[in-house]
Amino acid sequence: MRFRSNEEVINYLFSRRRMNIKLGLDSINRLLEKLGSPETHFRSIHVAGTNGKGSTCAILESIFLSNGLKTGLYTSPHLTDARERIRIDGKSVSLDLFKKTIELLFSTIEKYGCSFFEILTAIAFAHFCDQQVDIAIIETGLGGRLDATNDILDVFVTSYKTMEENEIPRICSAMNDYFLDMIQADPEHSIIRRADVTNAYDIAVYGPEDRLLDTDIDLNGASRRALTLAFILALAEVSGVKAPNVIDTPLGMMSGIVKQSVLRTAVNHTVQLVLFLTRDEISGCQDIIDQYAGTVYTLTNSAHYPKQLINNPDGSYSKMIRCDCNHRQYCNVCERIGDSNSLELNKR
Q1: Nearest-angstrom CA–CA distance, 302 and 311
Q2: Contact at 8 Å (CB) between 241 and 235?
Q3: Confidence band for 174, pLDDT divided at 50, 70 and 90
Q4: Which of 3.40.1190.10, 1.10.1130.10, 3.40.50.300, 2.120.10.30 is the CATH number of 6-146?
Q5: What is the pTM for the complete model shown?
Q6: DSSP letters along 228-288, please?
């Protein structure tokens, strides 16, 4: 089918508002199949509820746009032009795309009696896919499980099932291995035998005879920190995201071999590790830092003068001061009380 003008295609689209309502998702599924299942090719947020859907979508669009993301928005109803319902970065879909897509779908629309809203939903999904949006915000129509926009939910359900069946077991396995390595636990003889993620997505720790341990009572502070870090490392690894892990004071409450083991495990199982360590955390781990660290800086809080810092930092307000001292050095900027007597530090 070829329409002679944009006005003709718009009139045809609005004529579909007179179609009788048919329960089910068969019609929208047929349209999306004809378009190559575009709803599976972009990330989306599906907004449903009784009140506030439109304002929620507008707020989300503003947030994503302000952060530089290419953002699709599908809402209803429109004020003056049906194209207002489908926008990318605030700009409505073109009449030409409306015309081409409806022409492509014409035989399917006629065969399955597709409605006005189903056609617009298919156009929106195709447009978001073709334009490769970073995120699409999808508002439900009448809502409920038979709403045309629920094809997005099918993608969510499939993704969730994949995560539950494939990704969670991998996270559990990696987390358990890292955790036991960090705390130097023997899975055959230690009080702590394994860690797992339950069906309720809680992190659980088990002892002899698979007895569930209370992580608040049966685990010390060092083990709890190690468990959290092990989960973070496992999650990052299984997700496949190649990004730095930035962790603040991960070795607190740890000492001796556990502290060293936690640091080695973290270093060996991340793409890039950025750690903020206190002097106490560094103590005993200098050789590991020597071996693995690419760059070391010292950050000093000027508010620690005069209780902890020897010299008065410049400025009348609290701030973080960076110097080039590594983990074995101190200088006039970062020198703390007692540094000059430390056997682990040298003045730079």
Answers
A1: 10
A2: no
A3: very high
A4: 3.40.1190.10
A5: 0.56
A6: HHHHHHHHHHHHT----EEEESTTTT--HHHHHHHHHHHHHT-SSEEEE--HHHHTT-HHH
